[in-house]
Amino acid sequence: MILLVVYVDDIVIIGSNISGISDLKIFLNSQFQTKDLGPLKYFLGIEVLRSKKGILLYQRKYILDLLNETGKLGAAPSTIPMISNPFLDLNDSMFAELPDDLKKKIDPEKLKPFASPKRYRRLSGKLNYLTVTRPDITFSVSVLSQFMEAPTVAQWEALEHILHYLKDSLGRGILYTDYGHTKVECFCDADHAGSKATRRSTTEIGIITTLPTKLWCDNKAALHVASNSVFHERTKHIEIDCHFICDKIKENVISTGHVRSNDQLANLLTKALNGTRVDYLCNKLGMINIYAPT
């Protein structure tokens, strides 16, 4: 298989068939003028580094440009992408309706509208693109992207805090290693069915897996329900498609397994974690920081 990735006039050719890639480049050059830049090193803000361990995708230059653009090159680094704040979704119009005991815990100045929503949206969009190689900021960006219409001062400060976190981990990226197989493993958030809105993949690139996809879950009750054909119809975790998981297990499409909550990779994408937990889960996810001190 050879994959052709095209963005305007930039083309990346990916595949294991070296002779096929060479023939394709000759064909493309016969149809229009092209310039062969050699092995992929940089594409649309994504840097590619090869080693004996595998291929690392990271966006150090993109982050530095973003820090420079926002005046954060000299910012103090932070080890956590998002500081937990239960009042983050509040605004000044809600403050008057809060109980007095809660009002004492909140700075009303932080709930005022941010002066430049356009600036907020621009930074949010740039950070969203960065999640391509930085899944460790996915949760923070996802939460803060919900307030782009009328952000508050507190929400802007939370968005800026992500820049402080990135300053601390400029060289972190995703390392793709060759395991010699196409076995897929997934991690399931036990509270998935608590959300009324779901998003599912609708297309694939045609890579065939020879083994059942391993689905790791940190909720034993959900695993028991999935592996038994008799269950309560109102069970939270199977409200969306009651028999779907059971059928896929019987068809040998997936297999399930239990994982401790501390080792649940999905938590990195669904919760605001402290620095130690972020680093631990990033390592388990296959992320490395090539500029980290050894």
From TrEMBL:
Q: Which CDD domains match?
A: RNase_HI_RT_Ty1
Q: Where does the Reverse transcriptase Ty1/copia-type domain start and stop, copy by copy?
A: 2-83
> What's the superkingdom here?
Eukaryota
- Name the SUPFAM superfamilies for this protein: DNA/RNA polymerases
The protein's name is: Reverse transcriptase Ty1/copia-type domain-containing protein
Question: What is the scientific name of the source organism?
Answer: Acacia crassicarpa
